[in-house]
Write a structure and sequence with these properties.
- The protein is mainly α and 188 residues long.
- It has 8 helices and no strands.
- 76% of the residues lie in helices and 0% in strands.
Length: 188
């Protein structure tokens, strides 16, 4: 058990170091370091595109939305007061730009996780989970997606969606319960 604890500690330390490195990158980019900005873009381009794609349902549109988001991120980076909040702040910009596109084009197509290009090799056993997730309403899908697939904290999701932490927790709780009921119905 002591060995397991050491692995957990090392994993936790690795995550903390990565988080600190990212904060330094953000601060360097805020100071005008083009290399730091390029590295931030390289690190976050794909995750932000994936998020936009899940919202708008079109790869080309997601690319355009992500590029527009990067323009906003770059312009606003100097105003970001807490470098530790970069991830949630960037996701919020992409979310807002995606919703702006959806409102302008008056359509919303939710895309399941299995439809994403990097997820093509998922096992067939995931199909059941995909179908269950697709049955959730859009608010619950969004919270589940951000929490479990984007690995964002409750506080980060609260900031991204501009809703109270309690609402995020409630939606997650309700989504879990609904998924459990749906799972039990399909497994019998």
């Amino acid at each position: 058990m002591n060995l397991l604890r050491r692995f957990k500690d090392l994993y936790s330390m690795k995550n903390e170091i990565s988080h600190i490195q990212e904060q330094i990158l953000v601060m360097d980019a805020q100071d005008g370091n083009a290399e730091a900005l390029n590295e931030l873009i390289e690190r976050w381009q794909k995750p932000l595109w994936n998020h936009s794609y899940r919202l708008v349902g079109d790869a080309d549109v997601a690319w355009d939305v992500t590029q527009q988001s990067w323009i906003g991120i770059i312009k606003g980076l100097s105003k970001l007061q807490d470098a530790a909040g970069f991830k949630a702040w960037a996701y919020r910009i992409v979310t807002n730009k995606s919703f702006d596109w959806i409102k302008k084009h008056k359509k919303q197509k939710h895309v399941s996780i299995d439809d994403l290009p990097e997820c093509e090799d998922r096992k067939k056993t995931d199909i059941g989970a995909k179908e269950l997730l697709d049955k959730l309403d859009s608010a619950k899908q969004m919270v589940v997606n951000l929490h479990y697939f984007e690995r964002l904290s409750i506080a980060e999701i609260s900031m991204i969606l501009n809703i109270p932490k309690g609402t995020v927790k409630s939606r997650l709780h309700n989504a879990r319960n609904e998924l459990k009921k749906l799972w039990l119905q399909t497994s019998h």
